[in-house]
TrEMBL record:
Matching Gene3D superfamilies: 1.20.1260.10
Record keyword Oxidoreductase present: yes
Keywords for this protein: Oxidoreductase
Keyword Nucleotide-binding included in the entry's annotation: no
Top-level taxon in the UniProt lineage: Bacteria
A biological process term (GO) from this entry: phenylacetate catabolic process
Organism: Microbacterium trichothecenolyticum
Name the UniProt record assigns to this protein: 1,2-phenylacetyl-CoA epoxidase, subunit A
InterPro entries: Aromatic_CoA_ox/epox, Ferritin-like, Ferritin-like_SF, PaaA, PaaA_PaaC
Cellular component, GO annotation: cytosol
EC numbers on record: 1.14.13.149
Length: 311
């Protein structure tokens, strides 16, 4: 009965063990996982666009090969994550519909433009850096298929972060114009990368329950703090300035003191009014429409195979 199932579920969470697709789980647990995992999958897929924009313009063959591999990795992450979400009972078609109709969320970070090559460095360093900070604890998420997907994703993200750092390092050792381009990209991506961790803890409606269920292991603000601590020494090595004049370690509070994050900007982007929201969804919808013939051909092939099997 339900009380016994609830107790068994609670015991698995308590023991830091894993819930698997066929296990009983509360409806709200299933719902929040579908929400988070599908948003995460959509982020990986939409996240291909800002960098895909530079593949044909990368400054050398080597840079092009690296960037292409990275963008393909993001596609792979999206596919693992869609598969993980499907184990919870939502279909791939439903998730795709939600995305191309503009009803699904995906990370705010992918609604900013990439006007210069240095943006590839800043995305790798800051965006993939933030992604790792957020996702390493998700390797221990209580839902098995999600946690396991995160293990491989994090390994690849670490490579992405290093390649971004190396792009910026190369630019910072270049001409004054190249150094300026690198600093400008850091200036534009720094604040949006801090927003990736989500709203402040006291305005994060999902955190308490997700932490009780051991989906999230740390709060949004704690991870944001950890990320800043990671960036500060790396910025020094790069020779770039983090664009926050108030940034300093507060020894008394044992935390980084920062300027106020512009949460109005965050909410505008979430409401679909970021610089690139419309274009990102339009591109995704066009790609889906352009791929219709592939889906039709695959379905027809499956139908014929099926007919043969029956005959
Ligand atoms: N953007 O109550 P909370 C990548 C929404 S990394 C948009 O705190 P929660 C790698 C949130 O969904 C990026 N929406 O929510 C890559 C909720 O809305 P809802 C993807 C945001 O879930 C690199 C509402 O605000 N990573 O793709 C954002 O407990 C380079 C209230 O917030 C992940 O998705 C935001 N930044 O915590 C790819 C990681 N923040 O659903 C390509 C997994 C919050 O109630 C190139 N996700 N919202 O309508 C998570 O860890 C969590 O979902 C958080 C949000 C931490 C993002």
């Amino acid at each position: 009965d339900e009380a016994a199932e609830q107790a068994a579920f609670g015991a698995i969470i308590e023991a830091d063990s894993r819930i698997e697709p066929r296990d009983w789980m509360p409806a709200a647990y299933r719902k929040t996982l579908i929400r988070q995992i599908s948003q995460h999958a959509h982020s990986e897929i939409i996240g291909m666009q800002p960098e895909g924009n530079w593949i044909s313009r990368a400054p050398s063959l080597k840079r092009k090969a690296i960037l292409m591999a990275k963008v393909q990795d993001e596609a792979g992450h999206g596919l693992y994550l869609y598969s993980a979400a499907q184990t919870l009972g939502i279909t791939r078609d439903e998730m795709t519909e939600q995305l191309i109709e503009g009803r699904a969320r995906y990370s705010s970070i992918f609604n900013y433009p990439t006007p210069t090559w240095a943006d590839m460095g800043a995305i790798g360093w800051l965006v993939d850096g933030a992604a790792i900070c957020n996702q390493v604890p998700l390797c221990r998420a209580s839902y098995g298929p999600y946690g396991r997907a995160m293990v491989r994703v994090c390994k690849e993200e670490s490579f992405h972060q290093r390649q971004g750092f190396e792009i910026l390092l190369t630019l910072m050792q270049g001409s004054p114009a190249q150094r300026e381009m690198a600093q400008d990209a850091v200036n534009r991506w720094y604040w949006p990368s801090l927003m990736m961790f989500g709203p402040p803890d006291d305005e994060s409606p999902n955190s308490a329950q997700s932490m009780a269920w051991k989906i999230k292991r740390f709060s949004n603000d704690d991870l944001r703090q950890r990320f800043i601590g990671m960036l500060v020494p790396q910025a020094e090595v790069l020779g770039v300035t983090l664009p926050d004049p108030e940034l300093r370690w507060d020894d008394e509070a044992q935390r980084w003191h920062t300027s106020e994050i512009d949460w109005t900007e965050f909410h505008e982007v979430l409401a679909g009014r970021g610089p690139m929201n419309v274009e990102r969804i339009r591109n995704r919808r066009n790609a889906h429409d352009d791929g219709a013939w592939v889906r039709e051909a695959a379905a027809e092939y499956a139908r014929k195979q099926n007919e043969k099997a029956v005959a």
